[in-house]
Amino acid sequence: MIIALTVRQFALFEHVELELNKGTTVFTGETGAGKSILVDALSAAFGARANADWVRHGADRAEIIIELDSSDSRLKQILKENDIDDEDFTVIRRVITPEGRSRAWINGTPTSAGILKQFGDICLDLHGQHEHQALLQPHFQKQIIDSRLNSKTKVELQTAFSELSAINKRLKNLNSSRDDAQEQEAWMREESERLLRLDIEENLEDTLVAETEAAHHIEQMQLAAATSIGLLDEAEINIRAMLSQASHLVDGVAAHHPALQEASDLLAQMETLAGETVPYLQAVLDGQWDEESQAQAEDRLAELRAAKRRHHTDEIGLLALLQTWEDKLSALDTASWDEDELRAKQSECMLKYQQLAKSLHEQRIKAASVLIDALRPFLNQLGLANMQLKADIITQEDMHAWQADGLDDITLLAAANLGEPFKRLADTASGGELSRLVLALKGCGALEHEPDTAVFDEVDVGIGGETAWCVGELLKSMGKDRQVFVVSHLPQVASCADHQIAIEKHNVDGRTRTQLQPLDAESRHKEIARMLGGANTESLHHAKQMLSRGQGGSH
Question: Where are the alpha helices (DSSP H) in 46-150?
Answer without folding.
Answer: 73-81, 113-123, 138-146
